[in-house]
Amino acid sequence: MTAMTTTAPTPLVSPPAEAPAAAVRGPRRRALAPGRRLPATRLIGPALVLVLWAAASAAGQLDPAAIPAPWTVLRTAGQLWSGGTLSTDVLTSLERAGYGFALGLTAGVVLALASGLSRTGEALIDGTVQLNRAIPTLGLIPLFILWLGIGETFKIAIIAIVVYVPIYLNLHAALSGIDHRYVELADRSLPQPLRQFADTLWAEHTNDYDYAVPEEDVDAKKAEQRAQFTSITFRTAHPVVRVHPLTGERGLFIGGFAQRIVGLSVAESRTVLDLLQTYVVRPENILRHRWSPNQLVLFDNRITQHYAIDNYDGLPRRLNRVTVAGDVPVGIDGKESYSIAGDASHYTSVAPV
Length: 353
What we know:
Elements: E1 4-9, H1 44-58, H2 70-82, H3 85-116, H4 119-134, H5 137-148, H6 152-176, H7 185-189, H8 192-199, E2 202-206, H9 220-229, E3 235-239, E4 241-243, E5 250-252, E6 258-261, H10 266-280, E7 287-290, E8 304-309, E9 338-341
Helix pairs in contact: 3-4, 3-6, 5-6
């Protein structure tokens, strides 16, 4: 099961293009795909290797000193476990791997953030990491032995090197691959009169609004979560056009929590917000991501709207989500957002950037 997530960078727009004529569908052809995956098929390969290993060992085709038979491995493992040696060695290896992984993960993330978010960082870091990537890890082992000797430090360092390179490469590629034109797509694409109008607007955001969920779909657990979410009502005025604190670029800062335009009625506000939202969700402003297990996705809430597509047919969808405390939004006139109702002082304060 996969879930689709849509993220729409908050833009400012041009006149909508004419809708294309409906395409005439021809006969459906078979897609170039391997077909439906059968359960447990990934176990066939390892099972086949095990069978060949056992058969070759039984036929005397393998040197027991180099590649012992599977039953010899199992017998020896049982003896080591009974003697208490195996459990101790496994724990030692896991501890060593944990230290190396933690160091590699920390180094990879820190270096990728510094390189992916800064041109200076990229100039100083990326070239060195790419050179390190080109050198096989086995080629570094003699050098590390000379520097660190053959001990725990050497082993942890090798694990950290193996870990940090792919972490850095993937995170750096994700950060540097963001097309910064998307940040201001809405602002640049809005017609000039509408852009000038949006620049003057402030919207009231609140956590207490109608989520448009049918009553029959709200079970006791969802009702409890909803009650907890709205136990304290927050109402805050934010600029409709927000200036990004790092890039200085402008983007529409609206979405589901924006319920009313300051100074307008609810009905008038809905018309204005719906109009601006149509530019946010235009196809050219949307990135769709297909989730895979154990995947990490980072997106900037200051310029992105998140929407989870309900296309998993009632199957469980579990995400571990972390929201990092952000700065106070600022409009094009330099004025900061302000609270209307709800005390949020107990939330984590924002560290200076």
